[in-house]
């Protein structure tokens, strides 16, 4: 019975059908495994290829995976350039050399038609590919797929084999998928490089700006800065633990009152502010809003500009304008007063001479007082003219004591009217020095006016201003010192660093412009000297002008 059933199966072809079924099933399973492997390779390539890779790196990474799924002796990428083609990358790196692509080139055909293709070509059709003798060749089968940027074919991916008929349609489909994946990766790499280059250029520009720039978020955190803060502002910056701008810039634990960032948040408009540090540095701060795509405030850019020298220059210009006006006025006053004063002095001298001839000595002495007063008036007018034309006077050899006496001769009367006593302590052994006399007079005048104003604010039984000159040896240099001391209100320690800042003043608006000490310091520095201040609140202040004496 068993032999009969077996014979029946053989005659009806049942065994043959089973065999064909299992062969077909095995073949399908192999195809599924092959496709899964290819999908795995595409997925792995997508994961492995980084956006910062070069095109050569991307082709090298792909070539390492391809032999697992299809024959691959050569992998190349060609790109369109100037209506022709150029070999951009290949693996192995030294497999071949292609100097030009002829019109019949398969790669050119694929790019023109934007359709992938399999090419089984005789060696003479591929003679433009010069293969390195170290590798087997020539290439006999090519699978070429176009690479697109949007709808434009920008190049092609070439997979080559030295075997005949190495690829079929499923292989070509895989090569096209691979080309599409590599196109995306290469375009991402290019975009990344463009963004990186733009970021580097922006950061280089940001860091190259000499003015301090800070980027602050809406919660007052410093996101970015260019490290250009002045040395005077580094203290709080280095000590601050938090990233808050009020801690970094001001050493505070909470936002500043009337913070400009809050105004920017409210108005979405730039805000400008002038800020003076404790060291006297004057900064112009500009706050600019940074808006996101939704037009919402994302951050605030702060630009700090040091305008200390600009403010000093403005102060000097204002002072020069004042002196020019004073000079013009003094010239008119001198012209109007010199003639009558000459008549008064001359007439008094003639009358005194006649009285002396008549032996009326006592009456002649009275006329002598008129002559002396007239001469004093002429000296005051001349000093005023000289003072107002100080910029026209060159540096000459001067006697510091004489310059002090000239100033006292002009304003001593005004100070005495304020019930203030002036004490003179002028050193007798003071040598001459080279300086601009009228400018030195201006410095002393500013010192005396400030001392008078300081005394006007106190109630004392005795108000005293002491004008002194002295010699000082300091740091191996001899200095001539002209100082003015008063027993007035004194200066609070927190204001000492500000008193030389242009336009800073503690006086009422009608009593001062805040330029006197700033201009005085500029004069001292132009003479290679300086001004020193010592002050005790409630007891008084001493301002000292130090001028170098030329060494013998």
Fill in the keyword field for this structure:
phosphoprotein; five-stranded antiparallel beta sheet; 19 strands; single chain
Q: Which sequence of strands runs across the widest sheet? A: 2-1-7-6-4
What is the count of helical runs? 14
What class, by secondary structure content? alpha+beta
Provide the helix percentage: 40-55%
Q: How many strand segments?
A: 19
Structural summary, described in words:
The chain is α+β, with helices and mostly antiparallel strands and 552 residues long. It is 46% helix and 23% strand. It has 14 helices and 19 strands. The chain has a five-stranded antiparallel beta sheet, sandwiched between helices. Strand 18 and strand 19 form a beta hairpin. Helix 9 packs antiparallel against helix 10, helix 9 (308-357) packs across helix 14 and helix 11 (400-417) packs parallel to helix 12. The model is unreliable at 509-513 (pLDDT under 50). Keywords: Phosphoprotein. Residues 332-551 form the Histidine kinase domain. It comes from Pelotalea chapellei. This is histidine kinase. It catalyses: ATP + protein L-histidine = ADP + protein N-phospho-L-histidine.
Write the layout of secondary structure elements.
Blueprint: H1 2-12, H2 14-48, H3 55-65, E1 74-81, E2 84-91, E3 96-97, H4 106-113, E4 117-120, E5 130-131, E6 141-149, E7 152-161, H5 169-208, E8 213-217, E9 222-225, H6 234-239, H7 245-250, H8 260-267, E10 271-276, E11 282-291, E12 297-306, H9 308-357, H10 361-388, E13 396-398, H11 400-417, E14 421-425, E15 433-435, H12 437-456, E16 464-474, E17 477-486, H13 493-496, H14 516-526, E18 530-536, E19 540-548
Parallel strand pairs: 14-16
Antiparallel strand pairs: 1-2, 1-7, 3-5, 4-6, 6-7, 8-9, 8-12, 10-11, 11-12, 13-15, 16-17, 17-19, 18-19
Organism: Pelotalea chapellei
Catalytic activity: ATP + protein L-histidine = ADP + protein N-phospho-L-histidine
Enzyme class: transferase
